[in-house]
């Protein structure tokens, strides 16, 4: 690996030496980088607020102890292959390289687990461990895999395991208090918010993967393969991104509602959406400034304002709504802009549903019955 911060001896900070099959191209290193540099604004504001909580570490370590984290560590140690110089050495090189580029002092343990389903995860609060499945290792080429390893190291640097820990705890708690009136509803409302943060944390980690690999096409290919399998000659990145645009802009209000329902229980955004979001960030001024060496440092994290982080998160959501091509978001933007004729706009967003009907009182009563029948037919179809 050729590095902007090389001292000419081949020796890197923290005693790490570049070795193995690393890219034969210059990549930038980010000394002292704060995870705030690549985190999605919503993810960043949640993490900043959590870190500011008094006794944060103590509380969440206690929560972690209630979950099977220790059991999982033993399980992977006993029934998976630990990455090292002797086992999956190419992955070990990638892992150390990713930690070097993002300046993560302690290299997490990494395991390969036998599972045909392509997947990777980072678990643990104090000592994160990274797990990748054989399905993923066999699916991706070297540069695509490098982006995935960078993705998981980004999770470790951000401390995203806190979301997973709290989600597991609250989900278990919801099952125990389901008999209490409204108790489960209150907890599930928090779980829904945590899942939203979790989905945004995946977008953050995708950005970290790009900072490590510094190859946007490899990141795009990796996401496309996760969606469609190892048939790269049959797929096209531009066409894949066009799917994301069609998904966002297509349909009417009914499709917008279905999109929300579909994504609510998920921990990850949809793959086409992740690809589109990563491309958008890679083309942004923020990314260019980061690549030019202008980014927040880790030693400044303690001075970060919660209020400012929340303001940036709200601004990002407002911008997403304003720029969205989704029918529901466009309707919200129109209404926020003072557009009139709410009923007419809603009808048009539902594909002209009910257009051309008689507006008399008796006709309206008959139309209600027809609408119910039509609606049922459409649903069953």
Q: Can you walk me through this structure?
A:
The protein is mostly helical and 381 residues long. It is built from 17 helices and 6 strands. The protein has helices at 41-52, 56-65, 69-79, 89-101, 134-139, 142-158, 161-176, 183-213, 216-228, 237-249, 253-263, 271-282, 285-291, 306-323, 327-336, 342-349, 361-380, and strands at 2-3, 26-27, 81-82, 109-113, 120-123, 129-133. The strands form 2 sheets. Strands 3-4-6-5 form a 4-stranded mixed beta sheet, sandwiched between helices. Strands 1-2 form a two-stranded parallel sheet. A hairpin with a 5-residue loop joins strand 5 (120-123) and strand 6. Helix 1 (41-52) crosses helix 8. The longest helix is centred in the middle third of the chain and has 31 residues, at 183-213. The chain is globular. 30% of the residues are buried. Mean pLDDT is 78; it is low at 1-20 and 353-381.
């Amino acid at each position: 690996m050729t590095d902007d911060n090389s001292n000419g001896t081949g020796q890197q900070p923290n005693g790490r030496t570049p070795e193995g099959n690393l890219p034969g191209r210059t990549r930038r290193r980010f000394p002292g980088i704060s995870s705030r540099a690549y985190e999605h604004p919503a993810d960043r504001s949640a993490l900043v607020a959590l870190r500011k909580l008094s006794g944060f570490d103590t509380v969440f370590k206690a929560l972690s102890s209630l979950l099977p984290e220790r059991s999982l560590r033993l399980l992977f140690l006993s029934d998976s292959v630990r990455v090292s110089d002797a086992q999956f050495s190419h992955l070990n090189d990638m892992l150390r390289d990713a930690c070097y580029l993002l300046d993560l002092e302690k290299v997490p343990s990494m395991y390969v687990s036998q599972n045909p389903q392509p997947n990777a995860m980072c678990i643990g609060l104090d000592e994160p461990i990274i797990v990748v499945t054989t399905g993923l290792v066999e699916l991706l080429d070297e540069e695509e895999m490098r982006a995935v390893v960078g993705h998981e190291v980004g999770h470790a640097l951000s401390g995203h395991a806190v979301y997973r820990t709290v989600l597991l705890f609250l989900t278990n708690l919801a099952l125990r208090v389901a008999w209490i009136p409204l108790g489960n509803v209150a907890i599930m409302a928090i779980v829904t918010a945590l899942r939203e943060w979790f989905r945004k944390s995946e977008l953050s980690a995708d950005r970290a993967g790009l900072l490590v690999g510094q190859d946007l096409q490899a990141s795009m290919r990796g996401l496309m393969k996760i969606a469609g399998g190892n048939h790269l000659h049959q797929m096209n990145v531009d066409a894949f991104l066009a799917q994301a645009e069609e998904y966002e802009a297509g349909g009417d209000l009914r499709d917008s509602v279905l999109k929300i329902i579909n994504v609510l229980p998920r921990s990850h955004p949809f793959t086409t959406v992740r690809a589109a979001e990563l491309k958008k960030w890679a083309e942004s001024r923020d990314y260019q400034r980061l690549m030019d060496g202008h980014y927040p440092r880790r030693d400044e994290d303690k001075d970060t304002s919660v209020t400012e982080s929340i303001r940036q998160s709200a601004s990002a959501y407002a911008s997403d709504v304003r720029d969205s091509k989704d029918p529901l978001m466009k309707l919200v933007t129109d209404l926020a802009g003072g557009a009139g004729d709410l009923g007419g706009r809603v009808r048009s967003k539902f594909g002209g549903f009910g257009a051309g009907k008689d507006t008399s009182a008796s006709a309206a009563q008959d139309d209600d019955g027809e609408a119910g029948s039509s609606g049922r037919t459409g649903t069953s179809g």
